Amino acid sequence: MSRQTIQTDKAPAAVGTYSQAVKVGNTVYISGQLGFDPETMELRDGFEAQAKQVFANLKAVCEAAGGSLSDVVKFNVSLTDLSDFAVLNEVFVENLSEPYPARAAVQVAALPKGGVVEIEAILYIE
To answer: NCBIfam families recorded for this chain (predicted)?
Structure first.
């Protein structure tokens, strides 16, 4: 199978040795997205604003790969505070519809650049 690197200016540029996403066959692996505004590379202020920006970034990468958020089959979420879980669920409901994809959520000690939420995704595009 061919391997294709996905990149879009509508999501934050990679700040390390990784790609925004990699597509192999019909599967797209999106790297963890933080709440950075892609134009300023500044983190949004607060959990909800960062979570909404994360989804905007994920949406942009999904579209660059030829898919959409509805093609996501699995999300992996890292939060610095699990007490933000209820707000996270609200942001998921705002951006997705049933049937919902699989999801894991864990609390971590810290995230890069002081972020409070990071989400990675796996898409399957037919």
So the answer is: Rid family detoxifying hydrolase
> How deeply is 31 buried, as exposed, middle or buried, from its count of CB atoms within 10 A (0-12, 13-18, 19+)?
middle
User: What pTM did the predictor assign?
Assistant: 0.96
Query: What order do you get walking across the sheet with 72-79 strand by strand?
Result: 3-6, 21-24, 27-33, 117-124, 72-79, 102-107
Instruction: List CB contacts of 24: < 8 A, sequence separation 6 or more.
Output: 1, 2, 3, 4
Coil, strand, or helix at residue 90? helix
- Average pLDDT of 42-69? 98
CA-CA distance, 5 to 28, in Å (whole number)? 9
Residues in the chain: 126
